Amino acid sequence: MGGRLCREELREEKKRSPTRDSLTSSEKVKRFIVKQFGYNVLSLARRGLKEMPDELWELLELEKLNLSLNNLKTVPPQLALLSNLVVLNLWGNQLSSLPPEIGQLSRLRVLFIYRNNLTEVPEELGACTQLEVRYQNRFVCFLFRKKLSLFLLSSKQK
């Protein structure tokens, strides 16, 4: 009843202003930043992104970035500009590699990269000494006291 009317109104509104949620300026992207448990968080999950918006590189205050469930194929080296990142969620994309510059994210503690097309991670990721947990397709990687241990899981244990 009421739900149908609201959905139809939303469709009409989108037709009238198709760029309402488009990510064309850093100000429009900034409006999606929220403060959660003291962290500056931006979630662009499930937005159908094929590439990361250039405006991201201006958001130096970001601490948690969620880009999961998009259609990203690459992560640009500019990711290193987000030096305050503590959590980076890239799961559920189409990534086949990560840039070596990811190793410059010295505050990174959690990295979600599973459900991508990755077969390896850059050696530079070892420079992320704060990294505690990293999830990748068939690998579960833990970094404890600066020692990286890789455990290959059978595909049946996904």
From TrEMBL:
Transmembrane segments: none annotated. One of its GO terms (cellular component) is cytoplasm. It comes from the Eukaryota. InterPro entries: Leu-rich_rpt (IPR001611), Leu-rich_rpt_typical-subtyp (IPR003591), LRR_dom_sf (IPR032675), LRR_domain-containing (IPR050216). Pfam families: LRR_1, LRR_8. Keywords: Leucine-rich repeat, Repeat. SUPFAM superfamilies: L domain-like. PANTHER family: LEUCINE-RICH REPEAT-CONTAINING PROTEIN 30, PTHR48051. This is Uncharacterized protein.
